[in-house]
């Protein structure tokens, strides 16, 4: 709240010498913020604190409030029923007094692919990317089936969600997006970005002091829980009675004197984890004794500036981040891609095994696709992290909406949670 921009959003405007009562109302009503809600502990706690803030404003400012909250839940079709029921319960249990100020909206992840112009993005053996217009209709299921690697799937889904949330804010004139990330979550995002070769994008993730340039400079981002550890958020969940409203997440009881017996440790094997899950596990493990490591990571990340661009204003075709390094050149310089013929019996046997396997089929498919795309397509800029991600996708090829004004302005179909 030390920032004037955010002060203006949350402050209650009163009629005074220069401001008529109507104008004060309009100003309060136009202060809209967007809260993406996953029903994990952090975003749920943040929403609850916003509700408390509204109550406090009503009590101290003669019934007036300074801002309006749109809660956005992005869902997969299979989760919709449960998600809607949970949101309904949460809203009925806690937010009926602020029904006017807090509205719940639902957007299916599928809508990312609706009514779009697509392009096929494919990388070749030199890590260069080509793109070609694709007129076939495309959907989320096709998209997810192309991601056999859990890390690349999680990566691409994160882009889908973030782009949907930002597009929603753009279309509905929100002044800020409030992300629920705790300090722990921001630390694991930071380290995961570095591990995935996306370190150049840390600054844009943390940037709360500038309007988002990719979306018409209409809103800013804010992380109100960035000074709070996940274990603290989770403890708050229990003490505020929010734990029963969470979905796909069990709050930890590490800070509680009275432990909850029903929390099972996550039995996932390390080798099955995505990079984000692995880093999360690391921070979970050290949060008790070495929590200062977490705040050091976040404070350092917060200080990182945007790297100097090699070419100004070149955006990645996949993640839309600014490109600062020539990833493909560097990868070419450390990789040898020329084949060599089998020399002895063992080589020949291995070659025969490969020749009969699905890997060869996939390789042929990739070459076929590559030929068709590079014949009619054009080269597309890709950041280093996305080159790596695309390498983990089937045939190193992904179908992606073209980034155009049309994408930005294509209205998202939504459900709104109503009282009935
Ligand atoms: Zn990228």
Automatic annotation (TrEMBL):
Q: Is Protease a UniProt keyword of this protein?
A: no
Q: Which GO terms describe its biological process?
A: protein urmylation; tRNA wobble position uridine thiolation
Q: Coiled coil: which residue ranges?
A: none
Q: Which PANTHER family does the annotation name?
A: CYTOPLASMIC TRNA 2-THIOLATION PROTEIN 2
By sequence similarity, the record places it as follows: Belongs to the CTU2/NCS2 family.
Query: Gene3D superfamilies given for it?
Result: HUPs (3.40.50.620)
Q: What is its main location?
A: cytoplasm
Q: GO CC terms for this protein?
A: cytosol
Q: Which GO terms describe its molecular function?
A: nucleotidyltransferase activity; sulfurtransferase activity; tRNA binding
Where is the protein situated, by its record's location annotation?
Cytoplasm
The entry's function note states: Plays a central role in 2-thiolation of mcm(5)S(2)U at tRNA wobble positions of tRNA(Lys), tRNA(Glu) and tRNA(Gln). May act by forming a heterodimer with NCS6 that ligates sulfur from thiocarboxylated URM1 onto the uridine of tRNAs at wobble position. Prior mcm(5) tRNA modification by the elongator complex is required for 2-thiolation. May also be involved in protein urmylation.
Pfam families reported in the protein's UniProt record: CTU2 (PF10288)
Q: What is this protein called?
A: Cytoplasmic tRNA 2-thiolation protein 2
**Record keywords:** Cytoplasm, tRNA processing
In which domain of life is the source organism classified? Answer: Eukaryota
Pathway it works in: tRNA modification; 5-methoxycarbonylmethyl-2-thiouridine-tRNA biosynthesis
């Amino acid at each position: 709240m030390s920032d004037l921009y955010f002060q203006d959003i949350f402050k209650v405007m009163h009629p005074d010498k220069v401001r008529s009562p109507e104008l004060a109302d309009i100003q309060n009503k136009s202060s809209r913020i967007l809260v993406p809600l996953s029903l994990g502990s952090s975003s749920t706690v943040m929403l609850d604190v916003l509700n408390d803030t509204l109550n406090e404003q009503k009590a101290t400012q003669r019934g007036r409030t300074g801002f309006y909250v749109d809660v956005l839940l992005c869902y997969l079709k299979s989760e919709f029923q449960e998600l809607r029921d949970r949101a309904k319960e949460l809203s009925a249990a806690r937010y009926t007094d602020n029904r006017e100020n807090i509205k719940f909206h639902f957007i299916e992840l599928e809508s990312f692919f609706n009514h779009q112009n697509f392009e096929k993005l494919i990388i070749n053996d030199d890590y260069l990317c080509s793109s070609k217009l694709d007129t076939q209709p495309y959907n989320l299921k096709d998209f997810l089936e192309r991601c056999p690697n859990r890390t690349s799937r999680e990566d691409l889904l994160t882009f889908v969600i973030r782009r949907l949330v930002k597009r929603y804010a753009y279309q509905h004139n929100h002044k800020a997006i409030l992300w629920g990330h705790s300090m722990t979550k921001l630390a694991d995002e930071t380290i995961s970005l570095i591990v995935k070769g996306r370190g150049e994008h840390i600054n844009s993730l943390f940037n709360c002091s500038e309007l988002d340039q990719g979306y018409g400079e209409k809103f800013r981002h804010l992380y109100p829980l960035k000074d709070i550890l996940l274990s603290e958020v989770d403890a708050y969940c229990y003490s505020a009675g929010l734990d029963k409203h969470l979905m796909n997440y069990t709050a930890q009881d590490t800070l509680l004197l009275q432990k909850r017996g029903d929390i099972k440790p996550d039995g996932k094997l390390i080798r099955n984890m995505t990079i984000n899950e692995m880093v999360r596990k690391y921070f979970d493990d050290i949060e008790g004794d070495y929590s200062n490591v977490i705040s050091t990571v976040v404070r350092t990340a917060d200080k990182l500036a945007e790297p100097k661009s090699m070419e100004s204003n070149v955006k990645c075709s996949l993640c839309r981040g600014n490109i600062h390094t020539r990833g493909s050149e560097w990868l070419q310089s450390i990789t040898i891609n020329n084949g060599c013929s089998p020399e002895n019996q063992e080589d020949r046997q291995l070659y025969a095994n490969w020749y009969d396997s699905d890997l060869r089929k996939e390789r042929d498919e990739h070459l076929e696709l590559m030929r068709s795309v590079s014949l009619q397509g054009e080269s597309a800029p890709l950041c280093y992290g996305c080159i790596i991600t695309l390498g983990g996708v089937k045939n190193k090829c992904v179908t992606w909406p073209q980034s155009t004004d049309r994408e930005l302005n294509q209205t998202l179909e939504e459900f709104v949670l109503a009282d009935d």
